Amino acid sequence: MSALPLQTPSGIIAAPFDVEPIRADFPILGEVRVNGKPLAYLDNGASSQMPQQVIDRLVRYQTREHANIHRGVHYLSATATAAFEAARVTVQRFLNARQDREIVFTSNVTDSINLVAHGYGRAFIGAGDEIIITHLEHHANIVPWQMLCEEKGAKLRVAPINDSGEVIMEEFEKLFSPRTRFVSVTHVANALGTINPVREMTEIAHRHGVPIMIDGAQAVQHMAVDVQALDCDFYAFTGHKVFGPTGVGVLYGKAALLEKMRPFRGGGDMILSVTFEKTTYNVIPYKFEAGTPPISQAIALATALDYVTGVGLDRIAAYENELLRYATESLRAIPDVRIIGEAQQKASVLSFNVGEVHPHDVGSLLNDDGVAVRTGHHCAQPVMDRFGVAATARASFAFYNTLAEVDQLAASVRRVQKLFA
Q: Which positions are annotated as active-site residues?
């Protein structure tokens, strides 16, 4: 059965979600077999697949529009520039940012976080100041702030999580002090799927007069994000996790903050004038886009965002919730399978261990059955330490996955268990 009745996050009963037409848009899902078996691609948290529409847009740019952008007066440069800047407007609308100049193209979320850590942090954070993160963070939202703290003599403070993998909000708020200067938190935890209450976190930060950044790498592909409604100061996401190409990311920043920030990189296109004595920087967002940007990737990302918008993010969220519910029940029914992270609010991520079997062995045996999952610490070693494990296997679902693929996963896990019994 490919069509499931849906209840959207707002509680409205929606028309059934028919996954087969969507799967038909993703050629890799139908064309690739692993060991003679159909591919069940459940590694979307690491990188999602691209629909044919996005692939076609990349090909069209490379074959008929390719040129460097800005400053060029010839036809191809003007065409590429127009498509690139139109992509910026698409991202603005996707996030509901106030202005397109609040959208900076980067290479990925890691790049975006580093841009803020250097451009804002180095300018406004000093010795004795404090930065708040949570225990759920990806290394990309830990290491840049550690580096900044080491350089400036600042202190990193970490909000704890409970046994379900949820931030303890009372403890989060207790971390604020007169020396708190910045907060950076994940929207959806990559290792566990926990959805943080980022609107509440933003309200708390702003009550204390502190700006907040949200890492949306694992969020925008699963749910609608409205940065004005969240009122966050910065928001970042990555193209290849939202059905677009690799090599492109997005940083949203409130214009007033971006105006105050230092450029992270120097070079072409981020300047208005250069002499040996002084450089005058360009206006935002170009001040942060040194050198040739990811042109084709940004254009194709816009197509990917249009695609998920067309499917409907509320419908995607509802369907993925059904996949997660079914997968959770299926794995819970298998003896000696431990699910890591059972927050009440979760995106479609399921981390688990099978008895004492090393997750890498689990992943290899699942691959024999055509099931692709991620294994390891998921660049979230503090999370692994919190739950007393070195690693987990992680199945992460997208709106093109099916209940049959969940059954394929469960059957393969049962086979692992039998082999190691």
A: 379
